[in-house]
Design brief:
This protein is α/β, with parallel strands linked by helices. It has one domain (24-227): Rossmann fold (3-Layer(aba) Sandwich), CATH 3.40.50. The protein contains seven helices and seven strands. A seven-stranded parallel beta sheet has the order 4-3-2-1-5-6-7, sandwiched between helices.
């Protein structure tokens, strides 16, 4: 006597108390999410395509107007703007505000690539042109895309995240080598020393040439001299 085969187990249906979502609905939602991601990339690339000679500037959101690093970012951006550079930031406060402010004072273009958060990040008043992103990773690609140079002032986890991603992209040859400047020896020297002694000398986890991907500068005067003659490019993602 043959035994009747039992029915295969049913996949659970996960539901939100107010908005029931079945497994099928979730897969459809994932497909639409892909289109949203694609749209953010398309919009971001089109937004930046209209601006040439761009410099992306990064740093802490916590620095106020009287902070030394705020003042330096503002002054450097102003000098670069007078030379025809477009200043690009994440559009927020602190160093981003200082850079956008300097760009406006220098008569240049001031761009902000904002991120949409549950408690929305406020765009600083010195951003002249902006676009916003739902996803952090699409915004990061835009901040890394096609700039002639990148300038990092002291900052927190977000600044370090941007810095590490950028130097990895150069190290792995996913983007062409461009000037990556670190401003503020008091902040960056300890990290660079750790790179040299721990990563290179002791653990051999990087090559000596990897330490040349970026450059630590002692002043914004030095940064300006390195940046002022940076050639324009038409995109450096490989």
């Amino acid at each position: 006597m043959t035994q009747k085969k039992s029915a295969p187990p049913q996949l659970p249906v996960h539901q939100h108390p107010q908005h029931p979502i079945s497994i099928t609905d979730f897969r459809r939602d994932s497909s639409w999410r892909i289109f949203r991601i694609m749209a953010e990339f398309v919009d971001g690339f089109q937004f930046l395509a209209d601006y040439k000679k761009t410099v992306s500037m990064f740093g802490s959101t916590r620095f106020k107007e009287k902070n030394h690093h705020y003042k330096e970012a503002r002054q450097l951006a102003k000098r670069l703007a007078k030379d025809g550079f477009t200043i690009v930031t994440g559009g927020g406060q602190g160093i981003m505000e200082a850079a956008n402010r300097g760009a406006v004072e220098g008569g240049g273009e001031s761009l902000g690539l904002n991120i949409q958060l549950p408690h929305e990040q406020k765009i600083n008043p010195y951003v002249l042109h902006s676009t916003s992103f739902h996803y952090f990773f699409t915004r990061k690609v835009m901040l890394d895309f096609a700039a002639e140079a990148y300038v990092f002032f002291p900052g927190g986890y977000g600044t370090l995240d941007e810095f590490f991603e950028l130097i990895e992209l150069v190290q792995t040859k996913k983007i062409k080598k461009v000037p990556i400047l670190l401003v503020g020896r008091d902040f960056w020297a300890g990290l660079i020393d750790w790179f040299s002694t721990q990563l290179y000398e002791q653990h051999h986890s990087i090559d000596r040439s990897d330490l040349d991907i970026f450059r630590l500068v002692d002043s914004i005067d030095e940064a300006y001299e390195l940046l002022r003659n940076t050639p324009e490019n038409d995109g450096h993602i490989t």
